[in-house]
Amino acid sequence: MDFTNNLIQWYLREKRDLPWRKTPHPYPVWLSEIMLQQTRVAQGLPYFLRFTEVFPTVLDLASADEEQVLKLWQGLGYYSRARNLHATAKHVAFDLNGKFPDNYKDLLKLKGVGEYTAAAIASIAYGEAVPVVDGNVYRVLSRYFDVETDIASFSAKKEFFELAASLLPKDKASEFNQAMMEFGALQCVPKNPNCQSCVFNGSCLALKHNKVDSLPVKLKKTKVTSRYFNYLIIKDSNGNSLIQKRTGKGIWQNLYEFPMLETAQEDDFDSVCQSVEKFSSDFKPTDIKPLHHNPIVHKLSHQHLHIHFWEVKTEQKIEGALTIDEIKKYPFPIAIHNFMEEHWAEV
């Protein structure tokens, strides 16, 4: 199979020197795959290095406090990945005697491990001949073979899985799967790929038919909603502030935030002041001021958050309020963390 052989040869020449590729042990492979879901390697690599320094084994990770895990994860987003990561580490360490399942079927039973991640671990760590199918694979195969199937359709995963399986050499599953992922990340990129330097420029059907920019086909669009958050940085008579833990289901579950008022739209100063006065039943605000003019827009896959931070001063002492140094130790969503770093830079 020319495609398979050329792809693997390309990978052996061009692959990046990444730490999780230095060992087939399932722990770093699993950790890297979870971190790189929805995350570029350049962004995920520093997190991987910090995690493996603090948690060199799955037992170290399992024994950690969840808040420590979330604090180290802060900035990677999709925090359910971190919570599932921690839960799975506990399961592997305490229920499976520290040993990861050694096959695709059993890996799928782990919390937070889907078909793609299970296939990656099974093939890279154990050499099992099961193909990976993700956005990179959709893009490479749809372009090379001119596949016009909508990748958001119900039938797409099965079709691309079978196509990838037909190309996968049973004795080189690890190299092939990593080559597919690497080729999509480095060469067959989503926009403006350099097709002239591609090893497949003589056989790629999308290039031949001038369809590179139109493949893969994805018709279903994610509906994006806007939400409006007003965070209240309350300063009591000691200069301390309140924070609260988000316990409800959601992307920021178990992270911390300042007291928050969510509004239906971006409210003006007077409206927010009225809302704060109703909100503050335990203390009397003496001064309210915005800490910036334009909203901070934090874009998620399905939501755009329009965030304002307000300073609310009171002459009373508030029970449970914390110092700035104490607050900085807690895990926050990155939008709040970044504001704190800038606002409290000299504190």
UniProtKB/TrEMBL annotation:
It catalyses: Hydrolyzes free adenine bases from 7,8-dihydro-8-oxoguanine:adenine mismatched double-stranded DNA, leaving an apurinic site. GO terms for biological process: base-excision repair; mismatch repair. It is an enzyme of class 3 (hydrolase). Its EC number is 3.2.2.31. Signal peptide: none annotated. Belongs to the Nth/MutY family. Keywords: 4Fe-4S, DNA damage, DNA repair, Glycosidase, Hydrolase, Iron, Iron-sulfur, Metal-binding. SUPFAM superfamilies: DNA-glycosylase, Nudix. Its cofactor is [4Fe-4S] cluster. Adenine glycosylase active on G-A mispairs. MutY also corrects error-prone DNA synthesis past GO lesions which are due to the oxidatively damaged form of guanine: 7,8-dihydro-8-oxoguanine (8-oxo-dGTP). Residues 35-186 form the HhH-GPD domain. The keyword Transcription does not apply. Binds 1 [4Fe-4S] cluster. Pfam families: HHH (PF00633), HhH-GPD (PF00730), NUDIX_4 (PF14815). This is Adenine DNA glycosylase. InterPro entries: A/G_AdeGlyc_MutY (IPR005760), DNA_glycosylase (IPR011257), HhH-GPD_domain (IPR003265), HhH_base_excis_C (IPR023170), HhH_motif (IPR000445), MIG/MutY (IPR044298), MutY_C (IPR029119), NUDIX_hydrolase-like_dom_sf (IPR015797). One of its GO terms (molecular function) is 8-oxo-7,8-dihydroguanine DNA N-glycosylase activity.
